[in-house]
């Protein structure tokens, strides 16, 4: 071993002294090298300082070690270094450069990054290679100016991230990359590691993989430059055998942009062998491409985005990758998924300041760390909210409310519970919301208790819902305020029919059950039920296990106003479209904006109709006009002197045959046809009686159908939201998402859709191949795949 006093020589060679490698190694042509003596105790900083002082460049240059060569006779490696500009505080730099060859004992090197490059660790950890070192955490350091990218054909090579590059002055002339031989004789390219290839952007003519670069082309930042290169990387089976595709991007420090400095193209070996997917087509690249589509419609399906990506790049990524790309795009547009939970407490304070009277109830759960409660953080648990215009609007709506839940589609799972009302013009209106962990007895109790307390205190209210046990438990709670006669319950016939179809297959039987439910008289109900019984007695037995008052219209005593479903799908599609795909903070903010727009639009429509002198809503006017057309073929008989009790005989247009007789009571607003009491406006028979008695039919219309009532629903508008910078401060614990609600990190995201009979395939339907769509085989045994694989082996 060498002693501590053993000295080594440092040789300094100026720029231009490097020749390409020969059989004997790297040659230097400088005849007057600069000698500096160091020993084993000399630190790296002392070595650098001594070299710069001898050159008279201290403070103006930096030294970067690039490679070394071995002198076998003295066992001393010679280090090749490069002088790089030091940027001054004014932004200027010294453009003079020099290459330095340093000879030092191999045992004196404190750190070696690879077999060919000794790299001393600076303040920020650098990734070293035979020709470059880049800070991957903080982007490109001052001394990092340019990088080379080679198209490569090696399958399985992961894509190189931001920061792959060659150390050099950003504004100096381009120099051919050197190939330098190390001790083992292996050749290492001076350019950085190649990107994994296999996909390309399309040119103006739509040809995949033909996007061209040109010298002088500029980019705003390195990410944009790398993205442009990344979207033009081919999978070339001839790389290393004649393929010389090369692009070099350099940072122009003074301009603050990245520019193409060198480009050997076009890459002509792209189309020889292309796979169906590619690693370089990662979710970041896909996210940048689908960003405009996600911004236009956050509810755009993954299938649509996947097909668009495949059509643009010429490769078909996996479902999971596109799903991740969409989540990243949504996070960029609408805010980070995790940070959105911490914004909710301030949103509560801000919206209550914007609109006094807003009800927002936030529930959190403690964070346990090491058996102790973390007081600085809390898990998001539940949130209920409603706005003053919604509370006021429900007073003028029909006395019923539909409740249902819909799943969230983002990074974290959960359920959005919604209460939906309907005005006299058949417009649906969400009046209350809740974000909960899922549909269970506790979450429904939380939602319904606040709904009853703040929005729907009216007596005799009807609640339409599905048959979920959590809803049943919440509505039947003794202190919930939902028991008769304060409130009544009815089932959504769509959910009842879906449950029915799980036991009894066939669309005809399901249709018979729905027709029986919509029947407005007992006679009509018995007619459809008898047909159902003739199909299968077990079907009637299944239906008889449910109380008729819960799912049939003829037993609801007119509380439904003709509404048989919860209207959740219509509400989500028409008013809340896309909100389920947003982070929670953006979701709750979207409800405010969407409702504000709805109140303005519907309020203007109602005000315009009032201005023209209309008395009733457009929906009622259309129904009355339809009933008047059929009321001309009736024979009316009066049975009391108060003009309230009648019989109406329905006849053919010629009056030859009777089609039935109906009793009509204007006083009690009933008719044997069932429509008068079910819909709360005169049916065709009642209109005939009004015409016979010369009374105005408008007095027998429920007040909810008056245009003034419809206008009152939207009379109270929303106020412009106060900017977030003026929201009151929040000093409570930071709200964070519950990690248990995060979706699976691997595999295809699980569907949250509740499967019904509509999702079941016909058992008699022949199975088809998922690839060629032909029957008789599966994708694995598809002749197309088998034939192509055999051809490849041959």
TrEMBL record:
InterPro entries: MULE_transposase_dom, Znf_PMZ, Znf_SWIM. Residues 166-186 have a biased composition (Acidic residues). Keywords: Metal-binding, Zinc, Zinc-finger. Residues 160-186, 733-794 are annotated as: Disordered. Residues 662-694 form the SWIM-type domain. PROSITE patterns: ZF_SWIM. GO terms for molecular function: zinc ion binding. Residues 756-765 have a biased composition (Basic and acidic residues). Residues 742-753, 766-782 have a biased composition (Basic residues). This is SWIM-type domain-containing protein. It comes from Arachis hypogaea (Peanut).
């Amino acid at each position: 071993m060498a002693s501590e006093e053993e000295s080594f020589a440092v040789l300094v060679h100026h720029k231009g002294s490097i020749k390409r490698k020969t059989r004997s190694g790297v040659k230097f042509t400088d005849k007057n090298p600069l000698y500096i003596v160091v020993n084993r105790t000399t630190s790296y900083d002392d070595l650098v300082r001594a070299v710069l002082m001898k050159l008279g460049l201290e403070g103006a240059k930096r030294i970067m070690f690039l490679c070394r060569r071995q002198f076998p006779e003295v066992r001393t490696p010679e280090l090749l270094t490069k002088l790089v500009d030091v940027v001054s505080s004014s932004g200027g730099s010294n453009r003079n450069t020099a290459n330095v060859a340093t000879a030092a004992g191999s045992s004196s090197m404190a750190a070696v990054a690879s077999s060919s490059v000794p790299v001393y660790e600076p303040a920020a950890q650098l990734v070293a290679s035979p020709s470059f070192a880049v800070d991957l955490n903080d982007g490109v350091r001052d001394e990092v100016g340019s990088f080379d990218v080679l198209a490569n054909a090696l399958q399985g090579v992961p894509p190189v991230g931001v920061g792959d590059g060659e150390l050099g002055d950003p504004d100096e002339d381009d120099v051919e990359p050197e190939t330098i031989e190390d001790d083992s004789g292996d050749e290492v390219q001076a350019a950085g590691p190649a990107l994994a290839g296999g996909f390309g952007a399309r040119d103006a003519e739509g040809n995949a993989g033909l996007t061209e670069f040109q010298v002088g082309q500029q980019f705003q930042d390195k990410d944009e430059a790398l993205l442009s290169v990344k979207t033009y990387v081919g999978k070339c089976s001839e790389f290393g055998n004649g393929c010389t595709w090369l692009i070099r991007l350099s940072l122009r420090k003074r301009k603050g942009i990245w520019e193409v400095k060198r480009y050997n193209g076009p890459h002509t070996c792209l189309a020889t062998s292309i796979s169906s997917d590619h690693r370089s087509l990662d979710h970041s690249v896909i996210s940048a491409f689908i960003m405009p589509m996600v911004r236009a419609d956050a509810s755009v399906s993954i299938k649509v985005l996947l097909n668009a990506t495949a059509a643009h790049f010429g490769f078909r990524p996996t479902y999971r990758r596109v799903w991740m790309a969409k989540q990243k795009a949504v996070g960029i547009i609408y805010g980070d998924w995790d940070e959105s939970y911490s914004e909710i407490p301030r949103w509560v304070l801000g919206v209550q300041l914007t609109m006094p009277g807003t009800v927002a109830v936030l529930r959190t759960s403690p964070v346990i760390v090491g058996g102790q409660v973390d007081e600085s953080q809390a898990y998001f648990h539940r949130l209920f909210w409603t706005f003053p215009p919604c509370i006021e609007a429900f007073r003028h709506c029909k006395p019923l409310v539909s409740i249902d839940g819909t799943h969230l589609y983002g990074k974290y799972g959960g359920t959005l519970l919604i209460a939906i009302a309907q005005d006299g013009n058949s417009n649906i209106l969400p009046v209350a919301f809740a974000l909960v962990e899922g549909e269970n007895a506790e979450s429904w109790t939380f939602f319904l208790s606040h709904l009853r307390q703040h929005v729907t205190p009216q007596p005799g209210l009807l609640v339409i819902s599905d048959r979920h046990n959590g809803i049943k438990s919440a509505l039947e709670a003794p202190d919930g305020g939902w028991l008769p006669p304060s409130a009544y319950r009815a089932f959504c016939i769509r959910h009842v029919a879906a449950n029915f179809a799980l036991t009894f297959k066939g669309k005809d039987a399901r249709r018979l059950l729905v027709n029986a439910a919509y029947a407005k008289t007992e006679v009509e109900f018995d007619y459809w039920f008898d047909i159902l019984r003739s199909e299968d007695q077990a079907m009637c037995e299944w239906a008889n296990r449910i109380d008729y008052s819960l799912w049939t219209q003829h037993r609801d005593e007119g509380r439904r106003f003709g509404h048989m479903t919860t209207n959740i799908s219509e509400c989500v599609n028409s008013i809340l479209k896309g909100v389920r795909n947003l982070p929670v903070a953006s979701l709750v903010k979207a409800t405010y904006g969407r409702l504000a727009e709805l109140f303005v639009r519907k309020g203007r429509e109602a005000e315009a109709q009032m201005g023209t002198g209309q008395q009733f809503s457009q929906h009622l006017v259309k129904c009355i006009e339809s009933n008047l057309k059929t009321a001309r073929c009736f024979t009316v008989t009066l049975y009391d002197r108060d003009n309230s009790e009648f019989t109406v005989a329905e006849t053919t247009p010629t009056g030859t045959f009777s089609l039935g007789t109906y009793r009509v009571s204007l006083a009690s607003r009933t008719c044997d046809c069932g429509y008068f009491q079910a819909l709360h406006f005169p049916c065709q028979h009642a209109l005939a009686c009004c015409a016979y008695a010369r009374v105005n039919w408008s007095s027998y219309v429920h007040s909810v159908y008056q245009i003034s009532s419809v206008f009152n629903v939207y009379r109270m508008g929303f106020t412009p939201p106060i900017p977030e910078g003026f929201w009151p401060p929040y000093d409570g614990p930071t709200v964070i998402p519950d990690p248990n609600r995060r979706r699976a990190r691997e595999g295809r995201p699980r569907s949250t859709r509740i499967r019904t009979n509509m999702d079941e395939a016909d058992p008699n339907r022949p199975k088809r191949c998922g690839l060629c769509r032909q029957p008789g085989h599966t994708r694995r045994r598809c002749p197309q795949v088998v034939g192509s694989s055999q051809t490849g082996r041959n």
